[in-house]
Amino acid sequence: MLLIRRMMNLFSRSRIEREIDAELKSHIEMRIEDNLAEGMRLEDARRDARLRFGNPVAVKERVTGVDAALLLDSIWSDIRYALHQLTQNPGFSSAVIAVLALGICASVSIFAFVDAALIKPLPYKNPKQLVGLFESTPLGSRFHLSYLDYLDWKRMNTVFSSVEAYDYDSFTLNSATGLVHADGVTVSSGFFRTLGVTPILGRDFRAGEDSSGAAGVVLLSYAAWQSRYGGRQDVVGKTVTLNGTSNVIVGVLPQWFHFAPVGPADFWTALRESTDPNGRGEHGLFAIAQLKDGVSLGTAAADINSVAQQLAKQYPDADGGRGATVLPLTQVIVGNLRPILLLLLSGAALLLLIACVNVSSLLLVRTESRQRELAVRGALGASYARLIRQFATEALTLAGTGSILGVSAAYGAMRLLTRLIPAEKLAYMPYLRDLGLDIHVAIFAGVLGCASWLLFSITPIARLSMANLRNGFPEGGRTTSGSVWRRLGSSLVVLELCTATVLLVGAGLLGQSFYRLLHTDVGFQPDHLAILRLSASGKAYAKDEQAVALAAQVVREVKSLPGVQSVAIARSLPVADVNGGNSGFEIVGRPGPSGGREANTRQVSADYFSTLKARLLRGRFFTADEGASKPLVTVINQSFARKYFAGEDPLGKQIRFDASQPPIEIVGVVDNMKEGPLDSDLPPALYTPFAQGPDPRFVVIARTAPTPQTLLKTMEGTIRRIDPQILTSGAETMVDRINLSQSAYLHSASAWLVGGFAAIALVLGVVGLYGVVAYSVSQRTREIGVRIALGAQRSTVCALILREAGLLVLIGVAAGLGGSVAGAILMRNLLFDIQPWDASTLSAVAAVLAFTALLASYFPARRAASVNPVDALRAE
Amino acid sequence: MARNDLQGSLDLLVLKTLSQVGPLHGYGIVVHIQRASDELLNVEEGSLYPALHRMELHKWIRSEWTLTETGRKAKFYKLTAVGLKQLEEAEKSFEQLVKGIRAILRYA
């Protein structure tokens, strides 16, 4: 092929150039020989030859230039022809381009998220060797370590080159505008070295600075350096008072640095935990570690578990029943996003599939209608190859335009999607900061573009070879190939409907999961509850009595606000993003393994249960006077009762946190409340009176008569009046808290996005069906005319068409339902309270599809029925 | 109307030469055109080669390295069937061009 040879000429340039050189040289030499033969002197002969020939270098360039010029010329003429063809038929072209752009936009933008979250390596040194370490407990696998356990793990393991601890911290600091709140993290001294992060200003923590006696040191995040210190260079060496202790600023972290598990933190202090041997039960740290070279995750897990078991044996009170969990750091950081992103990517892929099928059937229809043009061109001597090249060029313009539009739209969609993520959620997903059209995404988009180009070239070419080109003048243009095409088109429609069914079922299941999640029984009445967090610090609230007194005063004052019905105090709130805050305990008088028993532990005021309207199952709630001077009491939840007192009456039984602690009597059983995420199980929980375990940082919960939003501001004002030094934060309503909780958010995001994909898929599938039926009708006009002329009822004709369409719909939907059950089983983890084979969803989807599909075929069927037999027969 | 420009006439000259003389190298073509036109047409020797290359890409001519009578290696060009057809067309359109120009010159 000429084209290919020309292209090869362009590539094998040097070989061609050598050949040209030789040719030109032989020409000049032959002229010289002739000149000599005519009696010239050698020099004159040479000069004459050169003069006649001209500049050999320029000639050579012109020779090689011929290749490029011809190639460009022919490509340009093909493109011009293709563009002409496409502009001739703007409806077709814009439909193809729009559908393809839609598919590419969806896939590329979702892929960009997948890339940012799952594919790009973490921005740390040797990210593959970094792992997260947790203690596992009977309640789950990802719980805090205690400081002493951390030290022992660090000392006793043989698989990690470093183990470093971290934990969130929240700081109160003095600023020009008074007390402010700041998020912080406290880390062991080698934390940044393990991640391979070096401060851009100042220095890293030194070994030993994380011991309990060391002077306080702090590193600033880049953002804090800019916003709080104006980016001044002399910030290093200054001191900052955090929670009442002064810390020297030793450095500033780089701008790119983020560590998602702790969210956005301004201050990174060196850990200063007490090495008091009684503190082993104080589980409050997370850890990261770096695997030694060549150590696998499995080996590491086995090693650190044996360490944990040794500790559990040695310290049964604090560590009994505890093991170790080793997870790749990527999983710690993006683990909860992985299933949902993969789900969305599959959804986008299905959408792209529908888009491509749709475009293919459009192309088939058009090739069909271009039969004659192609036949004419074939008869005029256009070679098969030449026609294929033209199809390829047309496909290139379509796929190219579609891809470019799709990718630009994807860029916009990414911006839009990130803007739709609430800012505080986004802050915990710092890896999305780099979201954009990077090299991975570009390659992905390029592959999609090339694949669609190939598909769009092959489809008409396949159609072309199906019908013999030279016999392209069939009588009347209605060929047997029409029925071949109809079969192919029908299978494409079945595929489309099948895919649309899968997406619709997926969306239906996710939507219902989301609905049920939001309406799940949380164990209390979340409406009309206003929440405000407050954090008092300093000497005035250091003692327990002072904290209790503050809580009492807050309750009194808030209760006196108009519209407030009752007020409660708690140290933490239900429906938290993490099912945490547990303690180990033992049951007094019950032998057996001490340790290994764990429960969520919550400190709440006497009015807590009545304010939240929790349901008392047995016994009683706390009384207002149950404080430090009274016997210790607890209310347990139903899970607790079932798990530890199966078949027994728990009331009057005693538990204690460990042997050194006084026993606590169980006085009541409350129905389970959701302490953790909405979609989590209900682990055992125990509630103790706030006054028997107070803290100057707590939450006020008020049940209000009017809508709770109206009271949030007033409540903040009340607290400020009590003491302006008390920081308030997190003012919200309980309903908002639940609806915006991470589990609800993930469910809603997946439901909305998959729902969007499904809606588009439905439209594309139905449009595809319409196209096929309409085309089939147009091809059969004569047959229908004959039928009517022979006396067929118009209703019979209409039914004939509808029956054919109905069969396609039936096959497509049936196959789709099967596929969607399989798909739903795969995404089972993302479903809440609904089975993958939920009959109502499946039948609703089938009904919606059947209805819209029959509607789509009804119009062409009616047109078929209204065919005038005389016109139809004369049309030939 | 075919391409009646100078390039077109150079193509015509080359094709005609090859059809009359048989396989010939570039230098041979130049010498033949000069001689056959009684030294009236002086082909600019260098400009012959881009034309030869283009015609080869169009498959009007084929090339082959062979030895000349004097034992020198040279690239010989040979007319193809396509080239022959092209030659006929070029001759026809040249005749028309000449006729047209003559008609204009005679018009008074």
Concise synopsis of the structure shown:
Chain A has 876 residues and is α+β, with helices and mostly antiparallel strands.
Q: Topology of this protein?
A:
The complex is a heterodimer of chains A (876) and B (108).
Chain A: H1 2-11, H2 13-37, H3 42-53, H4 56-88, H5 90-119, E1 130-137, E2 140-143, E3 145-146, H6 147-156, E4 160-175, E5 178-187, H7 191-195, E6 201-202, E7 217-220, H8 222-229, E8 239-242, E9 245-252, E10 267-270, E11 283-291, H9 297-314, H10 316-319, E12 323-328, H11 329-334, H12 338-369, H13 371-379, H14 384-420, H15 423-427, H16 439-466, H17 481-518, E13 529-535, H18 544-559, E14 564-570, E15 582-584, E16 586-587, E17 598-604, H19 608-612, E18 616-619, E19 633-637, H20 638-644, E20 654-656, E21 664-670, E22 685-689, E23 697-704, H21 709-722, E24 727-733, H22 734-739, H23 742-779, H24 781-789, H25 794-826, H26 839-865, H27 869-874
Parallel strand pairs in A: 5-10, 7-9, 17-22, 19-21
Antiparallel strand pairs in A: 1-2, 1-11, 1-12, 3-11, 4-5, 4-11, 6-9, 7-10, 8-9, 13-23, 13-24, 14-23, 15-17, 16-20, 18-21, 19-22, 20-21
Chain B: H1 6-21, E1 24-25, H2 26-36, H3 45-57, E2 61-67, E3 73-79, H4 81-106
Antiparallel strand pairs in B: 1-3, 2-3
Helix pairs in contact in B: 1-3, 1-4
What does this structure look like?
The complex is a heterodimer of chains A (876) and B (108). With 876 residues, chain A is α+β, with helices and mostly antiparallel strands. Chain A has 4 domains: 87 residues, no CATH class; 182 residues, no CATH class; 314 residues, no CATH class; 189 residues, no CATH class. Chain A is built from 27 helices and 24 strands. In chain A, strands 1, 2, 3, 4, 5, 6, 7, 8, 9, 10, 11 and 12 form a 12-stranded mixed beta sheet that branches. In chain A, strands 15, 16, 17, 18, 19, 20, 21 and 22 form an 8-stranded mixed beta sheet that branches. In chain A, helix 4 packs across helix 14. Chain A is globular. Chain B has a 3-stranded antiparallel beta sheet. Chain B starts with 5 loop residues before the first helix and ends with a helix. In chain B, helix 1 crosses helix 3 and helix 1 crosses helix 4. Chain B has a single domain, classed as Winged helix-like DNA-binding domain superfamily/Winged helix DNA-binding domain (Arc Repressor Mutant, subunit A), CATH 1.10.10.10. The longest helix of chain B is centred in the C-terminal third of the chain and has 26 residues. Chain B has 4 helices and 3 strands.
